[in-house]
Amino acid sequence: MSNTEGSTVPLLAARDLVKAHGRTEALHGASVELREGEILAVTGASGSGKSTLLHCLAGIVRPDTGSVTYAGERLDRLPEKRLSELRRTEFGVVFQFGQLIPELTALDNAALPLLLAGVRRQEARERAGEWLERFGVRGQGELRPGEMSGGQAQRAALARALVTGPKVVFADEPTGALDSLASEQVMTALTHTARESGTAVLLITHDAQVAAYADREVRLADGTVAPLEVAA
Amino acid sequence: MRADLRLAWQLTRGSDRREWWRVGLTAVGAALATGLALAGVALASLDGYVAMPFADGLLDDPRQRAGVVFSLALLLIPVLGFLGQTARIGAVHRDRRLAALRLAGATPWQVRRIAGLEAGLACLLGSALATAVAVPVLLSLWTSPTALAWAGMALVALAVPALGAATAALALRRVVASPLGWVRRVRAARRPGWAFLTAALLLAASAGLALLTPLFDRPHVLSPVPLAVLALTLVVGAAAVLLTGWSSGLLGRTLAARAQRPALLIAAERLRDDPWAAARTHAAVLLVTVIGTGFVGVRQVLLAELHAMSRVDHLGMDMEFYTTGLDLTAAAILVALGLVLSALAVGTAESLATRRRGLAAQHAAGVPRGVLARALFLETALPLAPAVAVAGAGGMAIGAWYASLTREYVVHVVPYVSLLAPLAVYACCLLAAATSLPLLHRSVRPAELRYA
Amino acid sequence: MIGMSTRHILLGLLATGPSHGYDLKRRHDERFPQARPLAYGQVYTTLQRLVRDGLAEVDGTDSDGGPERTTYRSTEDGARELAEWAGQIAPPAPFVTNEIFAKVVVSILSGGDAEAYLRAQRAAHMARMRELTAVKTARGTDLATVLSADYALNHLDADLRWMTTTAARLTTLTAEVDAG
């Protein structure tokens, strides 16, 4: 694809990742690069290692072998404390569901990363409110996740992922539980915001229509990156 | 019935580790309940004055024996609380499974029978073990037990599993009534029902009655209306439960609005969401706090009085007779405390295990484990503080009231030492809640993020 | 928009009032943004046929300062025909003419690399889907454009899914084709 576009040094790069869960090997020598501000779709059948790849890239799990480099730092060698900090400042995460705390309101959920960073509650809520506004769920700010529709909850989750102004957003099947209209709204909101703010997005999906929102696609098969076109 | 039994066995056999924990701990609780009940029955079957070779003559007199039997019966309360907590292990999963059975066409009674059999078999295991230990012990102490003792013991050994099965079947009424609701994970904050309020009112009434009966006039030191003290204790305990529910709601609302720190915010919002969860978990803790605080006060006053009496040679029995009684009571209260703390630890661990997927997601999103741990800890610590304080004050009042009654030989003192009891209980509770924190470490593994 | 009748579309555009050929082409391309643009010659011959069949007639000519242009309008027969067509359901794909499947089979028969072909086809489909998505999500896009892009996206997605399952079953298919 368009390898010549954008900056030459990747923001986030994984090389030859191997990761086993028990006896099954989820990743088997996968390499992938994410450039600054790029929206990259990772597709593949279920069980092809998509989620494990995301977990490795986001510093949620350490690969058994191989390296993950973020902005010149080796993520696979960083201590857990620093990884956790990185995840809440430089990265944003959106899952299929479950990333919102069920007992907190949408507004408090979106404000949580700021609270963790030591921002005062009032200011955190104001800034989170602006993000909810951008995603069209300001009116649902005082609702708890269980009281919102799936699409609204996912948009609140996007607000939470983006509230700290991260460099990379990791989205693991963000529309997996949504109907096509809600899915379109979530994806449009995500890609518009990411493009405007120059945030890179690593998007895991098995849905080609969702993958089409990305600039580029990486296809996984059996834990490794499959060629997309005729081998050169 | 055979088909139900087979299904119950298959379901239990195919279930995950947490369900085995439930079965195991239920068996332990049932064994404890059976043991206590067997000891009570054996003692109660004795008639008149019996010379016991142990316990410093405390069990010789029928009146004191009745007191011991009564204490054993009271010890059943924390055991039941413990059983109530263990029944919650993996309960969400079990209820969903039974609801699925309902949806698959099982009749309400079939589902009740299956759940009853599961619990009943676990209780039968515990009761059988306890009986197997109790019978040889009894035979070694008592050469020819009466037929009444045997009958009572057989009754207990059978009643425990039967009651366990019945309770399990009864507890399923919500699942049976609306299976769909449980499959969809609809959760409602449960307030204490009419049964709880009725029980509290009845206890208050019986305490009042006991206070009005002329038992007071008895000259014996050891007879200041145990019934009145204990009924009062139960009333204070019930009040503490109501207060916990009410205050944890208030605490949640107040703190949630003002919290600046994320851990406090999360804990406060959880309290606001379901204040009665804390109340249910802490009911037995509060009861033990009342009893424990009251006992420490009574013991202090009583010992002072006994020493004073022995100086003027007014004691009816050896000093050991009284101290053994007090020591046995202390031991019973400590056993109760241990049970209550185990129940609390089990409850905290279960609450954590139920939410492990969400916790793993939070950790993956960068919420530090420390924040999650503090939130979990505060969830126990916050609502317990005012409740233990009130329960402690209640126990203190009991001790002070007792002190005010017995001023014949010693000057009236307020037993301030008993104030240490609620503090100790609170500290133990925090420790018990903290035991589940290592579990958090395992719960936030990324493996939990995988969609089951 | 396979199988869609240009006749009826033009009749439909004429239903709003008399119009000339170039205007009809422009309005068609505007209204159906993701469809293949109409060639002016095609508009002209279709209009001739409509007049021949009595579904449309010449309204007059105007020049507007430029070259002379013939204006057409719909007849009553034309309006009836249009109403009938619009009410008919579209036959749900009665004969599947699947070029992709034909190429896979031919490629197996001739000893070619069916897998490589499917991969290349998939990449081309994805590239087109990304284009359509970009059109659809650009700010200020009207709903007609979004909906017609969605239509195309869903069809391409269906092709893609078919290609994915076919690629996974190529070995069995090869055995079957070779045996036959």
From TrEMBL, chain A:
ABC transporter domain span: 12-232
Pfam families associated with the record: ABC_tran
Highest taxon, organism lineage: Bacteria
Annotated keywords: ATP-binding, Nucleotide-binding, Transport
Keyword Transport: yes
Membrane keyword on record: no
Gene3D superfamilies: P-loop containing nucleotide triphosphate hydrolases
Name of the protein described by the UniProt record: ABC transporter ATP-binding protein
Organism: Streptomyces caeruleatus
Lineage: Bacteria, Bacillati, Actinomycetota, Actinomycetes, Kitasatosporales
UniProtKB/TrEMBL annotation, chain B:
Subcellular localization: Cell membrane
Gene Ontology CC: plasma membrane
Superkingdom field: Bacteria
Location of the ABC3 transporter permease C-terminal domain: 70-177
Alphabetical keyword list: Cell membrane, Membrane, Transmembrane, Transmembrane helix
Membrane topology type: Multi-pass membrane protein
Principal location class: membrane
Pfam families for the chain: FtsX
Residues spanning the membrane: 20-46, 66-87, 119-142, 148-172, 193-216, 228-251, 283-302, 322-347, 384-404, 416-440
Record's keyword annotation contains Acyltransferase: no
Name of this chain's protein: ABC3 transporter permease C-terminal domain-containing protein
Upper taxonomic lineage: Bacteria, Bacillati, Actinomycetota, Actinomycetes, Kitasatosporales
